[in-house]
Specification:
Helix content: 40-55%
Order of helices and strands: HHEHEHEHEHEHHEHEE
Structural class: alpha/beta
Number of domains: 1
Number of helices: 9
Radius of gyration: 17 Å
CATH topology: Rossmann fold
Bound molecules: S-adenosylmethionine
CATH class: Alpha Beta
Largest sheet: 8 strands, mixed
């Protein structure tokens, strides 16, 4: 197994054993999209959905297959996941597009320049699960400002991620999440636990949940929590453009 395959196998094990509550996340995501669809005028055209950091779609595909979309676009920094995502989505009655790219670069570029077709349409539903926490706090704020310009009026942004408690330092967060892995994740091998702890220690920068909600509101988003996990980390933020 190469480095990507080892890392991805550890992540797959986390999803399969529901260690980050992906099943509850999927249910909350479905409920939030359904509520948004129900609130639209009956004559509204089907929405375009863009998924930033789509991964292999192992969990989201069943929901996507049922949604009345105009298009689905999966964007990910890791090219190797895109064929897996395409295979998981399978045949759907709307066009799908696959982009190898960076989510911050997508947000900050001009609309219509992201390789998706039709290139001119705005994004009605923006979805991102467990990807934005890799950005620095400054980049997260820039992302929120830029994505606010890319979302269609009346659109929906579902941000699923890990977040820090208000005032919690990154070091304290990493220490408590690492303890959670070694004590509550016996389903992973010691080597897999080590991979996950090493990845989160070097790459994860979860936002302070209070500070990031304030930054989003300053960028022109209305913020509310759609779901909060049992471990004061995983959560779904529902953002709508003001
Ligand atoms: C933990 S996985 C989550 C995958 C999927 N969204 C899910 O919930 O199962 C994070 C994904 O985000 C991608 N990613 C990380 N940073 C990114 C960035 N700056 N731009 C685009 N994708 C990114 C990774 O390649 C990976 O596929």
């Amino acid at each position: 197994m190469d480095f990507f395959e080892r890392q991805w196998a550890s992540y797959r094990a986390i999803v399969e054993h529901d260690l980050m509550e992906h099943r509850a996340v999927a249910e909350a995501t479905s409920a939030a999209i359904q509520a948004w669809l129900n609130a639209r005028p009956a004559a509204a055209p089907p929405p375009h959905l863009l998924d930033l950091g789509c991964g292999d779609l192992a969990l989201l595909a069943p929901l996507l297959q049922q949604l009345p979309l105009a298009s689905y676009t999966g964007l990910d920094l890791t090219a190797a996941v895109l064929p897996l995502a395409q295979q998981a989505l399978g045949n759907v009655p709307y066009p799908s597009h696959w982009i190898e790219g960076d989510l911050l670069a997508w947000a900050t570029q001009e609309a219509g320049d992201d390789g998706s077709e039709p290139s001119a349409h705005a994004v009605d539903i923006l979805h991102s699960a467990f990807a934005i926490h890799h950005l620095t706090d400054q980049d997260k704020a820039s992302f929120l400002q830029a994505a606010r310009r890319r979302i269609a009026p009346g659109g929906l942004f579902l941000w699923i991620d890990v977040f820090r408690q208000p005032g919690e330092s990154r070091e304290a967060y990493v220490a408590r999440y690492s303890r959670r892995i070694t004590t509550l994740w016996p389903q992973l091998t010691a080597e897999q636990q080590e991979h996950v702890i090493s990845h989160l220690s070097s790459h994860d920068i979860p936002a302070d949940r209070q500070a990031i909600a304030a930054a989003a509101e300053a960028a022109g988003w209305q913020w509310h929590w759609g779901w909060q996990g049992a471990h004061q980390a995983e959560a779904l933020a529902v953002l709508t453009p003001v």
